[in-house]
Amino acid sequence: MTSDPARRNDLGAYWMPFTSNRQFKQSPRMIAAAEGMYYTTTDGQKVMDGTAGLWCVNAGHAAPRITEAVQKQVAELDYAPAFQMGHPKAFELASRLAELAPGDLNHVFFTNSGSESVETALKIALAYHKAKGEAGRTRLIGREKGYHGVNFGGIAVGGIVNNRRHFGSLLTGVDHLRHTHDPERNAYSQGEAEHGVELAEDLVRLIDLHGAETIAAVIVEPMAGSAGVILPPKGYLKRLREITREHGILLIFDEVITAYGRLGRAFGADYYGVEPDMITTAKGLTNGVIPMGAVMISSEIHDAFMTGPEHMIELFHGYTYSGNPVACAAALAALDTYREEELFERAAGLEAYWAEAMFSLKGLPHVKDIRCAGLVGAVELEPVAGQPTKRAFDTYLRAWDKGAHLRTTGDIIAMSPPLIIEKSEIDTLIGILAESLSA
Ligand SMILES: Cc1ncc(COP(=O)(O)O)c(C=O)c1O
Predict the structure, then answer these.
(1) Domain holding 308: CATH number?
(2) pLDDT (tens digit, 9 = 90+) per residue, 338-377?
(3) Last residue of a domain, which of 308, 340, 372?
(4) Which residue ranges traverse the bilayer (predicted)?
(5) Is 134 inside any structural domain?
(6) I need a labelling partner for 357 at 20 to 30 A (CA). Which of 109, 205, 334, 406 fits?
């Protein structure tokens, strides 16, 4: 450690997010550069990115169009206030996203992250009902094991216990559907799980309990990523759609992971054939290059706000960086890249190969379940007795040493490579995981 404060780098100052800080700082994994499918560490090792960063670098690292667009935009228009003012790229991007989004999700609200997209959608849901004269609809329904970011609304409707238990009573007026994780009945599923459609009726239970007239919205991830790739049971999302529609409740899909090609379609809503009232996104929107999120909103919801005197602000919500010009440039270039390189189609074309490679891990030590959808895969492991999460984390560290970056959640290893991955790289990635599991 140097005594020159300008050059000091003792690792202690940076409190790292969602990280075992003490373990990491004893044995840091530091990235110096990234290109395509690979990171280069500060000591010159090449490591394959098996997770597209944090499920966001869908076009691979340093995609040239995005790099150029960002460089050009910073020089041309670095920032423009987002309130009562606009710049052309924000409108262009919103139009492009509205075109890409399913059905009548024709309006877009910009945020800076997945967490902010979730807060935005929840607030719009509440304000929508109020605007329609149903101010009593204040209850928000999430689902056990759901991940909706880390802000208060998101952790309140979320269902990952450690993300909630340390932070007090959270939002009131929230309830949760039962989760759909059922490895006993649904082990080794792809796309959708065979069993569990009846779990959608849990929403009817909550409606009976609270009264539909008190419920504003239901928010679910169509495929729950962060809790360990939990696939929706066949027919489950369609049934949620029927029940919400019947009772005037909004359905929000949190697609921060599943949007922008992860499942081989623009949105998980397309993959599963169910159209919600709002979709929250972030991550792949800019390929992870610049922080940005976007909420896709139906015309019906949007139009309910466009009443009253025209000089009045219709929605008292927004961020200093909503529609930031550099973020918009990155997102437009990311959408161009996805389209011109046909990356969503590419992901769809690789889905079967990916699933076959993933399922080849069946039978390796401690493997309890494997689940896949699009270019997402998870291996669930039997925990070490009395030491939950250790088995998966040790496997992750072994894989890192062998040159692959994976992700763990509990005793589940999750993978979501950039959509540019080659078949030979799938073989390498799964080969490294196989060796790491067998070690
Ligand atoms: C479904 C879902 N919602 C919200 C978030 C939060 O996104 P961010 O970390 O950008 O706030 C995530 C992040 O993984 C997510 O997977």
Answers:
(1) 3.40.640.10
(2) 999 999 999 999 999 999 999 999 999 999 999 999 999 9
(3) 340
(4) none
(5) yes
(6) 334
Ligand 1 mean position, distance from CA 408 (Å) = 15
Residue-level pLDDT at 8? 61
Q: What is the mean pLDDT of the chain?
A: 97
Our separate counts of H helices and E strands in the chain read: 16, 16
Continuous segment of H or E residues that includes residue 302: helix 299-305
Domain ranges, residue 48: 21-59+342-438
Question: 153: CA distance to ligand 1 center in Å?
Answer: 13
Measure 240 CA to ligand 1 centroid, in angstroms.
22
Last residue of a domain, one of 296, 322, 340: 340
> Among 119, 256, 416, which is best to mutate for testing ligand 1, by the most ligand atoms less than 8 A from CB?
256
Torsion of CA 276, 256, 350, 413, to 10 degrees: -120
Q: Which of 257, 228, 325, 191 is nearest to 58 (CA)?
A: 257
> Ligand 1: residues whose CB is within 6 Å?
113-115, 118, 147-149, 221, 225-226, 254, 256-257, 282
